[in-house]
Amino acid sequence: MIKIKENQKINFSPRTFLRTMASFFASNTCTFSRSNYMAESSQDGLKIGFAGKGGVGKTLLASTIARLAARKEIFENVLAIDNDPSLNLGMSLGLEDDEIGPPISEMSDLIKERTGATPGSGLAFKLNPYVEDIPDEYTVNAPDGVRLLVLGTIQDPGSGCLCSANALVRELLYHLIVQRNELVILDFEAGVESSLGRATSKGLDVLFIIVEPGQKSIKVGQHMAELATKLGIKNVFSILNKMMDEEQQTILEEPLERAGAPVFGTVPYSRAILEADLKGIPVLDSSPEDAAVKSMNAILEKILKEFYPSCERKPAPLV
């Protein structure tokens, strides 16, 4: 059993967190075959990460694509993981605040039970706590059968300073990304290092970097793409959001392609999204026929074609 003291400074090798990637057989309903983009390690589930500068719309895309995927009834389970400190994924899915509950990273009793130490106690704790039951016991039922797990964030990512709460979150991320056989959609933190500074993100099937028109968003997108490549994530793409014309798309495409994140799809600027946000309801519910919703559904279809190509699926109803 691996233990360290609370807040002890240590240098982590990627091998501490990266284990041998499991190879899974396809389910009875899907014959898995690789597309040109498939990673060398295939699995029965699909793990998709969304990252980007704050405010670019990554939570909107993550929540909408999760619900549309659940409607297709391809996967036995669709897990939406909120790993962003703003904790907005539940609201974007269509849940009320009182339905969501606290993040795992703030559940002191659970952290103590699993790691042996309360955060901030200074006591030694387990680096590899038992987490396999957490996704089943602590998820919240969201619309369309999506299950939400509010994970919370790792404090001081990349600093080498680990507390018991961080140990639980890290081990849970590893379990969700590498060991679960279902569709897992992760809404990562907005910050560059926070979003991509975890060795377990290597187990992602694909990472989408969401970019909006603007040089700041482009720069963050480029930086994220470069970090993702260094981490060994095999499939890194960008999704252009809030697009108003082809000229904007042309300006964004070249620097992102150069950084290793070619454009996978685009979502047009939508007034319906702004109005839905003002009312506090998902655009999928308020304006299911909006062009932006249709674009996100097209992106989902392309994801399934490229990364889960041989499963029988039915069109997701937008209404």
Your description of this structure?
- This protein is of the alpha/beta class.
- Helix content is 38%, strand content 15%.
- It has helices at residues 14-17, 58-72, 89-93, 97-100, 108-115, 134-137, 164-179, 192-196, 215-231, 246-259, 271-279, 283-286, 291-307, and strands at residues 3-5, 46-52, 78-82, 124-126, 140-141, 147-150, 183-187, 206-211, 236-243, 263-268.
- It has an eight-stranded mixed β-sheet, sandwiched between helices.
- A hairpin with a 5-residue loop joins strand 5 (140-141) and strand 6.
- It is globular, with a radius of gyration of 19 Å.
- Mean pLDDT is 82; it is low at 6-42 and 157-161.
Shape: globular
Proportion of residues in β-strands: 15-25%
Q: Given the helix and strand composition, which structural class is it?
A: alpha/beta
Number of helices: 13
Termini gap: 50 Å
Instruction: Please give the share of residues in helix.
Output: 25-40%
Largest sheet: 8 strands, mixed
In terms of per-residue confidence, which ranges show pLDDT below 50 for 5 or more consecutive residues? 6-42, 157-161
Please give the radius of gyration in angstroms: 19 Å
Q: In which order are the strands of the major sheet placed?
A: 5-6-3-7-2-8-9-10
